Amino acid sequence: MASSTSNGTIRVGKKPLGQRMKKYWGFYLMFIPVLIFVAVFHYAPMFGIRYAFYSWKIVGDPQWVGLANFEKLFKQSQFSTSFWNTIVFSVVKLVLNTGMAVIISLLLNEMISIKFKKLSQTIIYLPHFMSWVVTASVFSLLLAPSANGLINQVLIKLHIIDEGIYYLADKGHWRTWYYIINLWRETGWQTIIFMATLTGIDPGIYEAASIDGAGRWQKMWYVTFPALGNTIITVLILNLAKIMNLFESVFVLQNDSVRRATNVLQTYVYYQTFNAGASADYGYTTAVGLFRSLVGLALMLICNWASKKVRGRGIV
Amino acid sequence: MAKQAELKYITPAGVEVPPPPHLNKAKSQYTVFHFINGFVFILVCLIILVPIWKVLIDSLDLTSGYGMKLLPTKFGLDGYVSIFTNKSLLQPLWVSIYTTVAGTFIGLLLSTMGAYVLIQWDMPGRTLFANLLLFTMIFSGGMIPSYLVMRAVHLTDNPLGPILLPAINVYNLVLMRNFFEGIPKSLFESADLDGCTPMGMFWRIALPLSKAALASIGLMFAVAYWNDYTNFKLYITNRDLYNFQMKLRDMMQSSDLPEAVGGATENTIRNACIITAILPFMILYPFLQKYFVKGINIGAVKE
Amino acid sequence: MKKLTALVLALALCLSLISFASADALKIVVMVDGTVLDQNNGRDAIEARWEELHPGYDIEFVQPDHSAYYDVMQQRISSGDWPDVLILSSTYYADYAAAGVLWDMTEAWENSKTKNSGRFTGDIVFDGLKIDGKLYGFAPTRGNGCVTYVKKAWLDACGLEAPTTYDDYIAMCRAFKDKFGTYAVSAAGFVGNEAPFVNYLPEFYQDAYPFFVQQEDGTWVDGFCQDNMKEALQRIQDAVAEGLIDKETLTNKTSDARNKFYDDKFGVFTYWAGTWATNLKTNLEANGRDGELVALKPLEGNPLYYDRVPPVWCISAACKNPQEVFDAFIDTMLDGGDTQMLWEYGAEGTHWSRAAETVLAGTEKEATYEEGQFHMKENLEKAGTLYTKNHIDPMLALAGFDPSYDDPMSVAPEAKAASELFNANSRLASIVPATPELSEMNGELTSIKSQIIADVALGSISVEEGYKTFVDEGGQELSDAIVESLNALN
Fold it and tell me: Is C90 inside any structural domain?
């Protein structure tokens, strides 16, 4: 708090804490509702984290087991595969989706016809409303190797391939299509936040750039893109904190043939406990959750640190 | 457009400039770039539409085919009729509407107030507050402890549960803060000198200047509330308090033993359910879009 | 706007605070899933009728969303908020019994009216429900399973009769393939992910079973490691390579498989017996196709179809008067009279009626009944359709009505036929007792097995390579450890 990072004002001296707090009393008051919500809905249930160190089979009292749950997790034979899959899938997906959303937003921003712009925006944001289960079932039809598979049929007509490929049954193809399907579903939705940022750009800056003789691409690159920078970094870092939660999108697209090669941590744990029925150990599940949180925290701290280095401040 | 042309544009430095060209472009400015750009979007939209088309056509087709079709084999609205003649669907629809409206309102209020406090960089304790919020994004207590807390505060089997619980969303709050940061500091400072209170600045400067942000984050809240299934599933067991998504899933589940109306097959109904869930936002979105399309210019506010 | 919101919130709060006070009657909290008609479908009428039949008791139903049932149940159990009576699937039944959540009803059952009524036909099912010789749950029905349906029109087009041997069956598939230019069989997955795993492709698996099985001498083996499994995998691989089985079986969801069947993409479909026979028929006919299906008996030399372990009604250990609740609630469910009628068909006047009336007036299915003629009434939720049953499927009930009682039995003929065929040709899928090794290692083991089955089926590896992979990936080791733990129980 000592350094004054504020952009507009630079305070040289520091007034006593009490005096500074008094100046901001109105703001503290405004923050109270937020604190109450966070306390009740997030901090109060956190007493549950301790179960990571217990064995608790839902009925009966929890038994203290120390780090046994973590040991169990780390020694699972597929732990490292699924751990790295989680990181790779999420990071690639995050970079691709955000990158594509930025490109689409920039292009939308250049569009002159307001009607066409609105129509395009409406269309590209629709896929977000289809649940993952539905998305998976439609795409497994589109990607079918038989005559029903539109994508194979198009590729055969174009003489790119000779016969239908069973994309979702092949480990290599599966990953590619996993990313494509994610792009299809989330790009439009992500553009919303970028479009909102773009409208906040002071139009005068474009004018100034034009006066300096900047062309379309220069303006896009030197004015629009940097204006998005802050939002892009925020979106990336906030999503990093959640990457270990990756589950549903992978789960619905998996099948017996590719499952072991494409498991992420969450799907792996799901199948581990699947046949265990009700006797699934709640302590173990909590330990996995805590592990995921710690990885998320580490990733976020690293990025926040990088952000501080590059931009002079973290994300919050 | 005419209204905009009258406004004066003032850069943060205070230099008055003519309105920027992209706000009063003439048709003659179409270039090769625009045609290519337009073409790219037509292509993108088509790709996006193919899978949705499949669902839409299946929902209007009384036969249940497996492959892709351009048009229904046997057109009929019976799928939708089966859904909407279902008397028990009105109550869940009403629950969805009021939880979405109330939740979005509370969510936006919390996000904007929290975000506004977080841009007070010199405020003692700001970093602590920020970290308190971030921490909740990463760590959670788990399903059963959350249930115990919800029950302790009497929010189980209570529509306030699914309204209040998702209202505090740190992700949205941080994005909101990001938008607030784009508002020139000088505006707040001059208001401060004029003796404006924090709350006053919040209502008179921060909110009016963030319409695009309010629209986009409000939309994110609204969609989350509308699509909410998990919170209803975990905290509501009284069927009178089910929302539309719960009911739709329930119908799709029980369509495992389908009893369709008229000529509709189970497949028709399932797809009609999917389209019905998308519909409200297909209708709502174009109305929100004006906030994304029209730029907010600082100059206009200063006037 | 703000005022409106506040009003809405206040209203909602008030609504949620209203609770129902109860009289002095003994209150029974009953937790049920979606298999009992819910609030929107006249559950209150069922409750009222039950309480009328059993004065002195007050039922309180807790009925979470069907798909969330076990989440909610788990929350309740772990937070000490136990109901008196609950419905459990076989997995939860075994675990909750072992954990001491359930009341031991062995003795109550032995002395029950139902067991000694002379109408009860489910002794085999109940033997299967016993854990260490003790019974913790009551199943009013059998579990149901899958039978193989063949399109009659396809058989006729090829001039064939329903096959009775595997050779005939394969010949039929080939004929279908040649005649219609498409695969003959499709399913959702080459192997199921829960017992009885092989129920969608029984003709190809035959007596092979990819899970732990108890041999006649009482010892356990892993069915996946037996020679009959290798032969089964070879049969599947050959059939997929020849184009007799849809290779998209790997990625099909059950709804995909059904849609393909309705769309005449294939002609032989192994699916649920009973009501589904009617559903398949109606959906085929809605597509303008011939809906007549032939339900096959198990092929010669093949084992019987698998019956699932049915869901059971249990009394929790927290129940204060378990014997009383057993007598009043559980032992009357199949009483052969009014209470059984209530559980099978619902409440008179709400779900069914014997009054003179016209149902579904103005629709194609309009029907007029005379006074005294039994009929189901229109669905409260889905206008234009009729109720078919309440909790107990009449076709699956483990006890019929008293000979003196007027049994309405109003079931579509094709559903009844399929059901009878299944009941006559099925056996209970075996229950494997839970050991710590099983619950710890089986997830991993199952995923290895499933991958090998899928890869062999699609022909990307041979059967031998598959079993080599099984050893390499550690499946053999896990399998041995579990078999050892099971044998240690004996």
Answer: yes
Cα of A300 to nearest chain C Cα, Å = 31
| Cα distance between residue B189 and residue C106, in whole Å | 79
Q: For domain B86-255+273-302, give the fold.
A: MetI-like fold (1.10.3720)
pLDDT at B68: 80
A304 located within any domain: yes
Question: CB neighbours (10 Å) of residue C178?
Answer: 10
Q: Kindly provide the residue ranges of all beta strands, DSSP E only, lying in C204-351, ordered along the sequence.
A: 212-214, 220-222, 268-272, 293-296, 305-307, 312-315
Assembly ipTM: 0.81
Residues of chain A with pLDDT under 50: 1-10, 12
Return the pLDDT at A213.
83
Note if the pTM is more than 0.90. Answer: no
Are C81 and C62 in contact by the 8 Å Cβ rule? The answer is no
CA angle (A28, A235, A300) in 5-degree steps: 80
Range B18-29 average pLDDT: 47
Please check whether residue B172 is in contact with residue B107, taking contact to mean a CB–CB distance below 8 angstroms: yes
Whether residue B298 has pLDDT greater than 50: no
> Which of A49, A114, A126, A299 to probe the B interface (max B CBs under 10 A)?
A126
Q: Is residue C59 within 8 Å of residue C47, measured between CB atoms? A: yes
For residues B151-169, give the mean pLDDT.
91
* C461 Ramachandran zone, left/alpha/beta (phi>0; psi -120 to 50): beta
DSSP B13: T
Q: Please give the residue of chain C at the shortest CA–CA distance from B88.
A: C381
Q: Please, which residues have CB within 8 angstroms of residue C282's CB and are 6 or more apart in sequence? A: C291
The total domain count for chain C is: 3
CA B189, B195, B200, B204 torsion-angle sign: negative
Torsion of CA A94, A98, A104, A105, to 10 degrees: 150
**Beta carbon pairs, A and C, within 8 Å:** 105
Binning pLDDT at 50, 70 and 90, where does residue B229 land? confident
Answer whether residue A73 is part of any domain: yes
For chain B, give every domain's residue range.
86-255+273-302
What residues make up the domain containing C138? 23-143+310-344
CA–CA min distance C154, chain B (Å): 18
pLDDT band, very low/low/confident/very high, at C269 (cuts 50, 70, 90): very high
What does the buried/exposed string (b/e) look like for A78-98 if buried means 16 or more CB atoms within 10 Å of the residue's CB?
bbebbbebbbebbeebbebbb
The CB-side HSE value for C483 (13 A sphere, CA atoms) comes to 20
Reply yes or no on whether the pLDDT at B17 is more than 70.
no
Q: What domain range includes position A304?
A: 17-311
Q: Is the pLDDT of residue B239 over 80?
A: no
Q: Which residues of C touch A275 (CB under 8 A)?
A: 194, 438-439, 442-443, 446
pLDDT-derived band at B3 (thresholds 50, 70, 90) equals: very low
Selecting from A60, A76, A166 the residue whose C-beta is nearest the C-beta of C247 gives A166
